[in-house]
Amino acid sequence: MTGELKKMAIAMLQEYVKEFQERRKGVTDEVLKGYMTPRELVWKGNPNPVKKEKKGKETKEVKGGEKGVKGDANPTEEKKIES
Comparing C-alpha atoms, which of 52, 79, 51 is closest to residue 64? Predict the structure, then answer.
């Protein structure tokens, strides 16, 4: 049974590799240049946006002294707590 599975896997892999090699032969310098040529990225947004339902409060209130509060010298720095 294991031998039969190995034969099936080998046959499938050989077919896949053969098809890959045939596609690779079709790659010319022109095709490669077309893929490697830098192009401007044009973003027109999502043509089919899906609106999410709002659940309760949308934003969480930040209390004074917590990380990221406006006015902190370095809002990304972790506050050390001594015990």
Answer: 79
Q: How far apart are CA 77 and CA 67, in angstroms?
A: 8
Q: Are 68 and 75 in contact (CB under 8 A)?
A: yes
Residue 74 CA to its chain's centroid (Å): 30
Residue with tokens 């039969």: 4
Answer whether 75's CB lies under 8 Å from 64's CB: no
Token pair listed for 6: 């190995």
Q: Which 3 state secondary structure label does DSSP give 9?
A: helix
What dihedral do alpha carbons 33, 38, 43, 48 form, nearest 10°? 20
List the pLDDT tens digit at each of the 83 positions of the chain.
Answer: 899 999 999 999 999 999 999 999 999 999 999 999 999 988 888 888 888 888 766 555 555 554 544 555 555 555 556 55
